[in-house]
């Protein structure tokens, strides 16, 4: 049996929609967090108080439930979907995933 990881992507999203796509395979979600773990990521035009709390994130299983094994999926990165792990802090959605190739095995005698 043949298996191949074609691509490893990390996505960070603000309060916007997300389309994950695996053109040549299916999505395999590695990890997901919503909140803030770095004061540098998504910090442009933000006040220090909006980005200083870097200990506020939650692991979110909703991304895996919605995207695992599919060719594409769409997710809204917002408090209404993932709740608010840190009020007053500017948050982002972090997704690490691979695109696994679809394999067909043929057996011959």
TrEMBL record:
Keyword terms of this UniProt record: Lectin, Repeat, Signal
InterPro entries attached to this UniProt entry: Lectin_gal-bd_dom, Lectin_gal-bd_sf
Record has Cell cycle as a keyword: no
Translocase recorded as keyword: no
Alphabetical list of Pfam families matching this protein: SUEL_Lectin (PF02140)
PROSITE patterns reported for this sequence: SUEL_LECTIN (PS50228)
Signal peptide extent: 1-22
Domain SUEL-type lectin, residue spans: 26-100
GO molecular function annotations of the record: carbohydrate binding
Segments forming a coiled coil: none
PANTHER family tied to this protein: PROTEIN EVA-1 (PTHR46780)
Name assigned to this protein: L-rhamnose-binding lectin CSL2-like protein
Organism: Labeo rohita
